[in-house]
Design brief:
Elements (H helix, E strand, L loop, with lengths): L8 H10 L15 H13 L3 E6 L7 E7 L6 E6 L18 E3 L2 E3 L3 H15 L11 E6 L7 H9 L6 E4 L8 E4 L1 E10 L14 H22 L11 E9 L9 E10 L5 H15 L6 E6 L7 E2 L5 H10 L4 E3 L5 H6 L3 E4 L14 E3 L3 H17 L4
Parallel strand pairs: 3-6, 3-7, 7-15, 8-14
Antiparallel strand pairs: 1-2, 2-6, 4-5, 5-16, 8-13, 9-11, 9-12, 10-11
Helix pairs in contact: 1-2, 1-3, 3-9, 5-6
The protein binds zinc ion.
Length: about 400
C-alpha cells in the first residue's frame, strides 16, 4: 500500500523484518516472498519510483522488485536480496520477525543479510526526485539468492534492469569487494551389478568403479590447481571437495551402485559450464572400457565467479569513500547476473558476514549513517553528475 509521504527508516526496516521470506532448497522451509516484495513496491511507489513486480517464471510466489527513478542509458542499481535463510526460533533472544534495538545494534532475521541494506537504499533514494537525476537510480530487490538464485537468473534472462553500475549490499562491514569465487555442486553415480561376493565374475563392483572415478576427479583437481592461481584469495587456487558418498549394503554382496557428491569452487576467469563439462569428461575417461554405467546430475545450477577490474570507476569510488582497498571474498553473490547485464558491480554493505545465517543476526547502528553517506555519494557521482 502506497503512503502519501516518504516512509521512515523504522517503518521500512521493521516492515521488512516482519515480512517472512525464507528461501530454502528444502520445500518444508521455503516460503513466498510476496509480502516483502509488495511492501518494497509500495514504499518505492510513494517515493515516485516506477515499479515493476516481476513474477519469476517457474517459481510460484517468488517475485523481484525493480524500482526506477529517472531515465537514461547509464545509472546506478542498488541491489539486495529479500530472502533470508531458515532460522532457529528458540535460539533467538528476541523475536526474529520484530526489529529490536539494543546494545547499539538492530536485531532481526535478515537485518544484516540483507534487508537492512534494502531499507537504507530506499532511504537514500527518498532524498531525490526524478528531476534532479541525469541518469536513473534503480532499487532492485531479488528473490531466492540464498537458495536457487532464480531471482538473479530471471533478471539476466529478461535483460533487465539496464544500468552502468551496481552496488550489491551484501554484508561486508562497509569494505568494498570486487571479486569472489564461483561454485558448482555435482553428483556422479557409478552403476554396476550386484552378485555374491564369493565370485567377482557374478557382478560389477560400483565401489571399485567409484575408486577410479575419484582418482580421475583428484587428478583433475591437481591440474586445475596447477593451472589457476589468484593471490587475491585467501585460498588462491580452485578447490574440489568430496563431500558425500553412498553405496552398497553388505560385505558379502557386490556393490551395485555408488553415488558421490562434490563441489568445485572456481576462480574468476573460469566458468561453471566449462568446469562441469570437463569434470564429467574426466570421470567418463577414468571409467572408459570398464563396463560401468554413469549418471551425472547437478545439485544446483551453479554460480559463476565475479571479477570487476580494480580500474573500474565504481571500484575506485568505493575505495575512496570507504578508505579500504577492494577485496576478494569466499561467498558467492548475484553479482555475475548483474555483470552479465553490463554493469560494473561492487559488493558493499553495512552488515557483518560473521553474524549472518545465525541466531541474533544484527546490524551495528554505527554503520547506518556511513552507509547513507556512501550511497549518497554514489548517487551524486553516477546519477546526478555522471561523468560523460
Ligand atoms: Zn546475502
Amino acid at each position: 500500500m502506497a503512503l502519501n509521504r516518504a516512509p521512515t527508516r523504522r517503518e521500512m526496516l521493521a516492515g521488512l523484518i516482519q515480512a517472512p521470506s525464507v528461501s530454502s532448497v528444502s520445500p518444508e522451509f521455503d516460503m513466498s516472498n510476496r509480502q516483502a516484495a509488495e511492501r518494497i513496491a509500495g514504499w518505492l511507489d510513494s517515493l515516485r519510483f516506477t515499479v515493476e513486480l516481476q513474477e519469476i517464471p517457474g517459481h510460484t510466489g517468488k517475485l523481484n522488485v525493480i524500482g526506477t527513478l529517472g531515465k537514461g542509458p547509464g545509472g546506478l542499481v542498488l541491489a539486495g536480496h529479500m530472502d533470508t535463510v531458515p532460522y532457529d526460533h528458540d535460539q533467538w533472544d528476541s523475536d526474529p520477525f520484530t526489529l529490536t534495538e539494543r546494545d547499539g545494534h538492530y536485531y532481526g532475521l535478515g537485518i544484516s543479510d540483507m534487508k537492512g541494506f534494502i531499507g537504507l537504499a530506499m532511504e537514500a533514494a527518498s532524498r531525490h526526485t526524478a528531476k534532479e537525476l541525469k541518469q536513473p537510480l534503480i532499487v532492485l530487490a531479488t528473490a531466492d539468492e540464498e537458495s536457487s538464485m532464480c531471482g538473479g537468473r530471471a533478471l539476466a534472462e529478461a535483460g533487465k534492469p539496464k544500468a552502468r553500475y551496481a552496488v550489491i549490499g551484501e554484508p561486508t562491514s562497509l569494505k568494498p569487494v570486487h571479486m569472489h569465487k564461483g561454485i558448482l555442486m555435482e553428483s556422479v553415480k557409478v552403476i554396476g551389478h550386484s552378485g555374491h561376493s564369493s565370485d567377482p565374475a557374478l557382478g560389477r563392483n560400483a565401489l571399485e568403479g567409484m575408486f577410479k572415478a575419484v582418482d580421475g576427479l583428484l587428478k583433475y583437481r591437481g591440474e586445475l590447481q596447477h593451472k589457476h592461481h589468484d593471490p587475491h584469495f585467501k585460498v588462491p587456487v580452485p578447490t574440489l571437495n568430496l563431500g558425500h558418498i553412498k553405496g552398497g549394503d553388505n560385505p558379502n554382496r557386490i556393490c551395485p551402485d555408488c553415488e558421490l557428491h562434490f563441489d568445485i569452487r572456481i576462480l574468476p576467469g573460469m566458468t561453471v559450464e566449462s568446469v562441469r563439462k570437463e569434470a564429467r569428461e574426466r570421470v567418463t575417461a577414468a571409467l572408459d572400457g570398464s563396463g560401468f554405467g554413469l549418471e551425472f546430475r547437478s545439485l544446483f545450477r551453479g554460480s559463476d565467479p565475479l571479477m570487476t577490474p580494480g580500474t573500474s570507476e565504481l571500484v575506485k569510488a568505493a575505495e575512496a569513500l570507504t578508505g579500504h582497498k577492494s577485496e576478494a571474498v569466499a561467498f558467492a553473490t548475484e553479482g555475475p547476473f548483474l555483470q552479465a547485464l553490463g554493469m560494473q558491480t561492487v559488493i558493499l554493505g553495512p552488515g557483518d558476514i560473521n553474524v549472518a545465517h545465525q541466531p541474533n543476526e544484527s546490524l551495528p547502528l554505527a554503520n547506518v549513517e556511513p552507509t547513507l553517506h556512501i550511497l549518497e555519494q554514489f548517487i551524486q557521482s553516477f546519477c546526478i553528475a555522471p561523468a560523460p
